[in-house]
Amino acid sequence: MNDGPCHPPPLYLPFECEIIAVHDLTPGEKLFRIMRRDGAPLGHLPGQFVQVSLLGWGEAPISVASSPTRDGVFELGVRRAGSLTGAMHRLQAGDTIGIRGPFGRPFDLPRLFGQDLLLISGGCGLAPMRSLIQYCEDRPSEFGQISIIYGAKSPADRLFKDELAAWEASARFACSLTVDNSDEDGCYSGNVGLITALIPPIILVPDKTVAVVIGPPAMYRAVIAELKKKGVGSDRIVVSLERQMRCGVGKCGHCTIEHLYCCQDGPVFWLDEIENLRGAL
Ligand SMILES: Cc1cc2nc3c(=O)[nH]c(=O)nc-3n(C[C@H](O)[C@H](O)[C@H](O)COP(=O)(O)OP(=O)(O)OC[C@H]3O[C@@H](n4cnc5c(N)ncnc54)[C@H](O)[C@@H]3O)c2cc1C
Ligand code: FES
User: Fold this and answer.
1) Which of 72, 117, 165, 204 is the most buried (most CB within 10 A)?
2) Does 15 lie in the same domain as 117?
3) The domain that contains 22 carries what CATH number?
4) pLDDT per residue rounded down to tens, the chain (281 residues)
5) Any domain includes 262
6) Count of C-beta atoms within a 10 Å radius of residue 223
7) Containing domain of residue 64, as a range?
8) Rounded to whole angstroms, how far apart are CA atoms 244 and 262?
């Protein structure tokens, strides 16, 4: 029997989006402001990612860098890493890209409500963290004290420099920022050193604090060790993990961490769910 044309399930069907604006964040990273061509909101929560597709180049998972509280458009911070992200960096306002998603488990907002938050990110990890920071900015009554800790390789490598300055100036946030190496021209006057050095001076109440950690793989163990020294338990530490992904929807098995699928069971995990799994951190 012919049931007519065979449509792929919506999980595999990209929808058309228009790039509204492109901004340079650093020489290797750009911020894309994007809108669905049908005008519908993306419908994401902080911590989720989308699969970006470009005809002829394939797909790549990219975290949503903006909060759903700023709806209508969404933003992606993209590092030029290879073929698809390289092609994306050549796009301009008005160009079309395909998007599937949003996918993945977001931050557990109900468990964060009323808690003091320690938002710790390194390098490109500030892109997914920005979605949560913007959410906290827009819903200030839902959270306790919010501390933002961010480390980058150098002053020039810092993402969202204007927003970092605004968060530093805001009474809503306590910001501690650092870079591994200062600029040679000497214009930078902030902290220089590893991000782990920013954690010991922080005064926190372990039973009222949730720490969220997003960064390069090398950062997790050292940051988690410092958090544990401060008495923050594994049930109060959240991590967002990156794995090589293909389908993004739990079908291909490329992203597994033992029995877990990073694309569906994550990318956001409570530390006590994954810390004993081989290769998780
Ligand atoms: C859940 C998730 C969220 C992500 N969010 C962002 C984001 O917000 N911004 C951003 O710039 N990047 C993000 N990435 C990484 C991004 O998906 C890869 O950089 C991208 O797939 C590279 O595609 P490409 O075709 O340009 O590179 P390719 O030509 O495929 O590969 C270039 C290099 O990148 C490496 N690579 C490919 N995929 C990954 C991956 N998943 N993780 C690490 N290295 C990879 C390859 O091994 C190779 O060395 C995220 C990845 C995941 C899994
Ligand atoms: S990316 Fe295919 S199963 Fe996770």
Assistant:
1) 117
2) no
3) 2.40.30.10
4) 444 555 656 788 999 999 999 999 999 999 999 999 999 999 999 999 999 999 999 999 999 999 999 978 999 999 999 999 999 999 999 999 999 999 999 999 999 999 999 999 999 999 999 999 999 999 999 999 999 999 999 999 999 999 999 999 999 999 999 999 987 667 888 899 999 999 999 999 999 999 999 999 889 999 999 999 999 999 999 999 999 999 999 999 999 999 999 999 999 999 999 999 998 98
5) no
6) 26
7) 10-103
8) 9
Please tell me whether residues 115 and 215 are part of one structural domain.
yes
Residue the block writes with tokens 């049930």? 235
User: Residue 50: left (phi > 0), alpha (psi -120 to 50), or beta?
Assistant: beta
* DSSP code, position 8: P
The finding on whether 255 has its CB within 6 A of some atom of ligand 2 is yes
Cβ-contact 114, 42 below 8 angstroms: no
Q: Is the CB of 216 under 6 A from ligand 2?
A: no
Does 120 lie in the same domain as 95?
Answer: no
127 C-beta closer than 6 A to ligand 1: yes
Residue that is last in its domain, among 55, 82, 103: 103
| Residue with CA closest to ligand 1 atom 4 | 62
133: CATH: 3.40.50.80
The structural domain count of the chain equals 2
The verdict on the CB of residue 250 being under 6 Å from ligand 2 is yes
Whole-angstrom Cα distance, residue 130 to residue 152?
A: 15
